[in-house]
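Lab notebook, bench 4. The sequencing result for the construct came back, and we need a structural model before the next group meeting so we can plan mutations. Quick request posted to the team channel:

Model the 3D structure of this chain.
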Amino acid sequence: MTTLDEADIEKLFSGAPQFFCRSESHFPGAPHPSVAFPFDEELEIRDLTDHVQIEDKAWSGVTAWPHLTRDLNHDAAGRKKAEHHAKAHFHVRCRERPNMLSMQGLEKGTMGYEAALELPVSDSLEEEQFGFESVGTKARAVVEARERMMSGNGYLKRLPEPDIMDRLRRNEEIYRNNDMRKRPSLETYKDLFHTFMRPCTTVIDKSDHYSLINQTNALVKCLAAPNVWIDLSRVEWRIRLGQVLWGQSGGDELDDDTEIHDAASAAERAEEKYWLLMQVLVSTELLIRLDAITEGEQHGTEYFRPMDGLYFERQANQSVKWSILLARSWLDNIEVVKEELRNPAERAQVRPKRNGTGWLASLVSKMSLGNHVGQEAQKSPSSHHYTIQGRHGDRQVDGLTHFARKIQWPGIDAYESRISENAQNSVESTPSALATPKSASSKSSYFGAWDVTSHHGQPHHHKVQAQRRKMAAALHASGWLSKSYIFALMLPGDSLSHFLMATLLENDGEAMATLGSFANLCGGFVYRGKSFWSTSCIVGRVLAAGQGAAECMGWISTDVLPEGRGDGWISIESEDVPDRLANFGTDDIARLGRKARIWGKKRVEKDSYILGHADEASVAAADFIMPHENGYATPPPSAAVELQSLKLLRPVEHVQPSPLSEFTATPMTESSACPALPSQPARLTFAVAVDGKPAEEIAFTLSYDISFVTAHPCSPSRRVRFVKSPSSPTIQQIDVSGANTLGLGSRSVYRAGHPLHKWYNYTVIHISQLLEKRHHPLEDLLDPPRTKMPNKSGDNRVLVIDCITGYANIPPVSPVLERIDSASSAPSPVLDRRGSFPNKMHLECRRRQFGTDMEILVRALCAQKGWNAIISRRKRGCLGCAIREAGALGWKVIVRVE
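Done. Here's the predicted structure in token form:
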């Protein structure tokens, strides 16, 4: 009963993750959640994560967070390129929310701790909360702001499009060999202000009026001007960049009939593209100067004072920072090629024949520079034309085939061979002339995107925001979605998942003919004996728990097919988690925006603290318990589970009927263009045999759009030995010397995990008992609070669902499932000789082998009840750490699996 000191506590919780949520002054908005191991220095422990690593360099654009991709481990060229980019460069303090690195948890169909807390304050929800007005709507404020920008009192002079392209080409060269810091400041000043900008009257570096600091100040002020530029802090515009560049009829070399539908004329559409190119130009001018200043600081040159950095952070709003991310993406991935026309009549030549009609032909895509904008451009026709090329076509090709293989795309071998053939053809037949404008009489069809987020059961004047925004799109061969991917012109966020699947489908002629052009990119579809689901869809997140299911970059594939449904797209209806189910009304995790749990920083950390709410000065060994899921006085009955069917219901069959999803036109969309795709609730039926009795059919309707989180891995302390009474889970003695064998006594085989302070209140229920009480509300399944300690933050009870003890899987009867099982019979990961978990690579390689019908069942039950759940896998993380993570998230359910 001796009191534990600080050193004892550190030894006791060595290898235990601790959960934080802290505000960072340079990142506006919600605090940043994080997980750390403050008591450990070993890389094997500090590198433990609850999410998978990005596997392919082609997918790096998904996040603005620093990261390494797994392919660098075996790609010498990629590793060399990464080392080249490791030189000093400006690090813009701008991040997507939620953190896309955390969006794919180690368990299929789950996310990590960071993403779970950030989802209710995601970028897309802020867009919906504060309103969205597209530049394409040509609001009067936009027109006036742009006129002021180009006026004598504005920052910019109007440049013809050829001059913009010439300067972009030059900036690409400077970016790769940045010598601005070495050039005289007067030279770079004249290059900027005597060409297309007007000098800024505000001078912050009075020692040198022409300095790079003053130049960057003028560029920041220009980009920060309201109502002029595309605001890329809005998720919709991050997706639509490609639509502005390549979605204009009458000028796209690739026969792309997409267009910006809100534009009233071809001249207006050209104007929108002009302003986007100008935004790219101004942003690249700013970025190359910031890189030069940063490199100078790296080499000890006194170029950038701390006060200059503070001034920049104050002036650069979110829109400016996202424009810098756009500039980085452009300079890293896009190349502008200038070619001289020997004869102006060449511009009217017929387009050269292409050997391949697939998306790979867009590796070399013509930018049509029409003379719609500015009198300067109309004086004389240009003697040159410009080609926009992707710098990393092969990398993007490999990334697409990697994605297709990971999700087990039907006929992938034949598809990959067609990709290779088209790649060769695209290299051999590079077009050399401008595209012939389309005939005015040609019918132009709009292929855009729609926000199909449902607001179930709410009148139009009182809509409730959903945690996940839904998007549908119409696909088109070599359309702007494909081009956005192949050119790698992508900004951080979930748009990459849309681009990957759209690119895969747009260039598989058989799939397009079978599925049609309209795609519900946040739903699912059936194709050639498999079903594919977005992780935005609750069906995908539930079925991902099955054996043989595969997950990659926001998509899940499985052999489970909806009953009675052939090939085609599916839209699933589900409700947001209601307040009454979130946390007994005391901690509403369904709240979004400013009401989300992430804003309660102290509460998040206190409710998951290793010492609970106890007084740190009086912590004794007897205050801790060793939680485990199988401590039953009487062994529970065994349970065997087999998934029988997936059925799509009519809305009237749903337990809580709701109207069909509303297809809301986005600012660049006409609602009349969106086809009808009714949403249907999904129901899973299982055969459950308890204690050897005849199997009983149990069905669960996936009513609620809940989330699953992978419990963060931990590593058992090697410096502590626990000694406890056989009749009591309370630790009566802790040997912090670590001299004896780790475990619950010297003869223990399994890891002991980490202790849990008795302040935490958890209840273990076996899956067979839960099925008997499946109609009970969550509060009835939890024991009354055992602790008398004051709990100002509300109810701290947690339900642990034991899916391990006595579980047996019913042998599958489907030949397809039998084939998958036999191919996935690798043993589960075991502890290494040190008693710790296998490394991340080992666990990731085994992800597809994890999964059972039992795990699908328990996720389906949670989806019917509206319970967000933490998935805690034995030997990856201990139950004590999972319970503390539940406290951090404010969640009430932990699913403990083998």
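The chain has a mean pLDDT of 76.
Will bring this to the meeting.
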